[in-house]
Amino acid sequence: MVTPLTITVPASTANIGPGFDSAGMALSRYLTLHVKEHSQWIFEHRSIHLPEAPAACEHLIYQIAERTAKQYGAVLPSCKVVVESEIPLTRGLGSSASAVIAGIELANQLCSLSLSQSEKLDCASDFEGHPDNVAAALLGGLVISAPSSEGKIEFFQKKDDNLEIIVYIPNFELKTEAARKVLPDVYSRNDAAVASAIGNVMFAALIAGDYELAGRMMERDLFHEPHRASLIPNYVNIRREARNFGAYGTVISGAGPTMMSLVPKGNGEKIAALLQEQLPDYEVEVLAMDLHGLRVESIVQL
């Protein structure tokens, strides 16, 4: 007998400038699954951000759940899953990472796997190929992560409610594959050393709460932003105007096309309103850092 439950996973932004494929931050938009036992697997979508639900066997969340269950020698009981989402697809806000975390947790709950956070993160990183978005979506806060030589994911987490995040969401998509194709295959030793130094200073400043320094270093990334900037309309204008209005720093969110700014707490709405006037075709919204990550609630039926 499956107890009805709700699984909630936050959106995320990755890279944060120089933290390429290693840094992520959970954001206050959410993917939510309402799960209850059913005679067969059915997915129902209730969101303007989602297409019509495919057959269960073709649904990413089901596929991840089934793979997870098989990995631990379990069989999924059939359920109906109602999916609600505030996360637009292929916009650089971690929609696939949220789905991966949701699928792993779906298997964890339905099959009573009792997976640890580390086990979930290892599974998610294996599915996604890198840990940046999935670590943030799972754990919440700012997460910096790296694979170890043993194949496990090591991570550092900071939760910070002293910042606001403005996202600039355009009305077009950018596939991650296209954004990766413009990146160089190799970096020179000098370029890699300088880019790593920028990232080191940026994260040290962010962790220490020196947001002015962190913001300056965010905008000096050499790993991916210079190569992707041409794919992002208004890239230069958004960075310039956001800083003029008081943002600490502005970068591409994940692979784009969304951009995001870190701004002083309490100033987000003012800055967002000024940018919205200049970007009428964008959705400009103030978000917070989600501090909880994955959440599960069992629904008690009376």
UniProtKB/TrEMBL annotation:
It catalyses: L-homoserine + ATP = O-phospho-L-homoserine + ADP + H(+). Residues 60-141 form the GHMP kinase N-terminal domain. One of its GO terms (molecular function) is ATP binding. Pathway: Amino-acid biosynthesis; L-threonine biosynthesis; L-threonine from L-aspartate: step 4/5. Keywords: Amino-acid biosynthesis, ATP-binding, Cytoplasm, Kinase, Nucleotide-binding, Threonine biosynthesis, Transferase. Pfam families: GHMP_kinases_C (PF08544), GHMP_kinases_N (PF00288). Its EC number is 2.7.1.39. It comes from the Bacteria. Its main location: cytoplasm. ATP binds at residues 88-98. One of its GO terms (cellular component) is cytoplasm. GO terms for biological process: threonine biosynthetic process. The keyword Kinase applies. It is an enzyme of class 2 (transferase). It is found in: Cytoplasm. InterPro entries: GHMP_kinase_C_dom, GHMP_kinase_C_sf, GHMP_kinase_N_dom, GHMP_knse_ATP-bd_CS, Homoserine_kinase, Ribosomal_Su5_D2-typ_SF, Ribsml_uS5_D2-typ_fold_subgr. Residues 202-280 form the GHMP kinase C-terminal domain. Catalyzes the ATP-dependent phosphorylation of L-homoserine to L-homoserine phosphate. HAMAP family: Homoser_kinase (MF_00384). Belongs to the GHMP kinase family. Homoserine kinase subfamily. This is Homoserine kinase. The lineage of its organism: Bacteria, Bacillati, Bacillota, Bacilli, Bacillales. The gene is thrB.
